[in-house]
Design brief:
three-stranded antiparallel sheet, three-stranded mixed sheet, binds zinc ion
Amino acid sequence: MTFYEDMSPYSYWNGGDCFTDMTTGYRFLTFEPPYERLNVGWLSGDEPWARGVAPAGFIERLEAVLAVQAVNEMLGLHECELCPPSDEQPPESYEPRSGHRRSSVGTGEIRVPDRPGRAFAAPTLIGHYVIDHGYRPPMPFIEAVLAFDPSGHAPAGHPWVHFPWVPEGATHYDASVE
Ligand SMILES: [Zn+2]
């Protein structure tokens, strides 16, 4: 997976942010982000990464975001490079490996609002990195996750988008009515 240093400006995808409705899988909301995006958790097997115990409540909050957000899902599959090669199962299986809680394969990203005008952009694999490998993200990200209740945000007309900063004019696409 492409490596980006924690807290560096997001550049993985030049287009807008596209939120997928995880309750149906076929509704999408795309917009040019009116916020700065900072990378967190784009780990690689070739680069050092921080280990440590996360503060109480952090993992639960992170999992709550991962349960409701799917951003830029169409951009492909991310595979964990920290896991050793496995003979137990096909490499692209979404089932967690034995002893793990989360899959070592993921698609898409999440967005966590930080201070006004700034959001963190993390691959969904960050849950696996934190829970199964003991990755400790930078403190500003941990604080932002602890402060973010994704269930508390629903833009008008898009109750499935769990993110507060959706601009007017976002493009809605419903694949079920095409
Ligand atoms: Zn892994």
